[in-house]
Amino acid sequence: MSEESSTGDNEILNLSYGTKANNSEKLKGGNDIKLSPSIDYQHINSISPRNYNLNTTEKTFETILSEDEDQVQNDNQRFTPIDRPTKSKLSNGDYLDNLSMLPNSALNNDSKKAKDTDLINFGNERYVDEGNSSSSSSDTSVILGTQMNMSDAAKDYYNSYRADDVIQEPVLSTASQSSPPKYFSSEDESSDDDVALEKECVPYKSTYDAYYILELSSNIKEVDWIETTYNLKIQDEPQNKSAYDRALLTLGIGLKSLPLVYMVLGSSPKIKRYYSGLDYSLDDAMKTLHLNDDQKEMDAINNFLKYCYNNKEYDLSHVLVDGVYDNFVFYIICLISIGEHLNSELIRKYISTGYLDDRLLKNGNWPVGLFNMGNTCYLNSLLQYYFAIQPLKNYILSYKPLDLTNKDLEENELMDSMRCQDFVIQIQKLYKDMINTPYRISIPPNELIYLVFAPRGGLGLVDGKIPDQESLDVSIEVGRQQDVTECMLNYMDQLEKAVVLNRKVQGEHFESMSKLFNGSIIEGFRDILNEKIHGKQNIEEEFTSILISLHDKPKTLHEALEHFFNNDEEVMELKEFGQVKKQSHLKKLPDILQIQVQRVEFNKEILQPIKNNFQMEYPEILYVDRYVNGVVDDKVKDQYKKYQEELKKCEEKRLSLRKKCTGTTSGSQSLSLRASLSSTIKCLQFELQDNEMEFDKDQINQSLKLLSSMKDHIDMQVELINTRISYLNYKIANHYNEYQKYGYELFAAFMHRGEADYGHYWIYIKDGDMWRKYNDEDVEEVLNPKDSVFNFDIGNMDTAYYLGYVRKDKIKEIIKPLDRNV
Prior knowledge:
822 residues, eight-stranded mixed β-sheet, four-stranded antiparallel β-sheet, disordered N terminus, ubl conjugation pathway, EC 3.4.19.12, thiol protease
């Protein structure tokens, strides 16, 4: 504040607010201060002249405007009307007007102005351009701090803008400790409390007034910026809070901003009482939003949007006549009351932010979605997959870590064991939240993300927390480079390690866990004549999933599994036995049979991995009897192979016939042999009818018969081979119909859309007769599985890359995706 005094006597200035009728009227007793001609003061009534005791050489208020009225004509955005300025008389009889709350731009201090042209636009953020402004502030973060949030940017702008302000406050002729008067109100104007209340609660005439009072550019629409400026204003000048409340209310209505109105209602109980009324109750709120006692929070939000909507531009006449945008403020008060009554975090956050937080939507009897933490959306599919498996879920929920301090373990093994226990505890936290949260979305802990993807042998959690943010970033980056199988292996490896640690304590749990995913395969060998090799023992290996290849484009899952278990084309070299063929059989069957579809292949031509989008059909019920050791007789298997071999020959013959039936005309058009024969026959028939041509009719007739016979022969060949192929396909598809003892039912299909190095993942999970699609936060019912889960059309780019089958007789016992306690 400047306290420089002039050497002369105090000069008494009379300030006149002129209307269109008296704009040029001068008052007696001093110099006239002209107001901006761009301001329409017609709506200001009963304004008395105000006297100022000034002891300064500087001009004040809008005297600067009188120096260049041409510029003022185009300046109504920066100098907009201030509604109802008044005077206030102190107890000592002197007058005080708190000029300190006037914007710096209204003072005759050119070096302190910050014009709209001085603002740089960084997306949604605005900063003062120190290069264009003459402000002396050296805070370069205002210009360069593009990473700051909106609140920090607003604070820096506000502080740098006001740091060196020389605000000219009036000097009182007699000192007084009385509080300054309320801005735009005076006890002298009216003794009617209702009128005084209305002056503090009714919005300003336009949003420009509010921007002017808050010293903001009218281009600023960001809620964070406006709220921060408001908070700084009332902190610096609490005596003018009512004016700033009105400004915030005006912008809230004018911008149709729930957060701004919510903020002013919380900050000013007087404004809230003014719009709600003295007799306001919860029943009023329920009636206003057309709600019944049994309706939920989303009903309240939907009805609020339905009944308070109004697309009119802001104007004070609309506010007063239409009841604040059809009672916009009152509807917000009603929604606040209902939210408090329902104890609804969803409604509170909706009003305070203006956005509906999906994570807070109450879910009822429906599975919970998972928030996507980054480019690792297959992790969410994996977490949902394991959550649906009831025995695994029960084990995780009841897991209790052991005290490893007394265990005789080496340091590396001890650290890894502790990490695995932390891993299970983090999954336990997530699964408990998925069961108990009333909302539709759960958020996986960062600690879980870190432990899933962080390389084994590295640092685990420190006191239950991630070592640092960099470790989390590295972990997520590793996750992006993994496929779902690697993630599964890491997941199950840590889980099994924790299980083994508790094996003595929870032996029964361990056995049931082992039976869920672990099976075994017996590998045997035959010579190249398909005879058994004596002296060579079979090898038994355990597995948790079966990897099948799409390189040869198998039409069905059974065809791919046949290639996996009995690949006659793959010949191995053994020192003792020479060239042999490997044959595999299932020995121990798991409760859950997991099949991985190898879709990523390395292209040697472009030296890059590519994705195979070939659509392989997989059944809803999969019988594996033919692959189980000793179940199907060898003769039945041999007959199946004969069908396959004949089918292969028939398809090759059909392909060869198609090639032979393709000829070339004198032009570039390619025609089939059958089409050429048909064309020749028509030509000869025309010659027979043409009397002018001298050809032997008998020869022409013989040629016609020969050509027709050739054409019919081609048709018959094509028909016969197609019929045989259809027959063989039928025999192959139904050859093992008698062997349906070991049946598995599909309960999960991991899906991918995209290429080898990018794309999106989701999962389908079956619950009884219903299929659901789990797509990160969204969980929805699949109305027609044939169009999604079992869509094998060639043009469909949604491809399965991991299939989960469960024993048909145990699906109800093992698979329970819906597990809620709300």
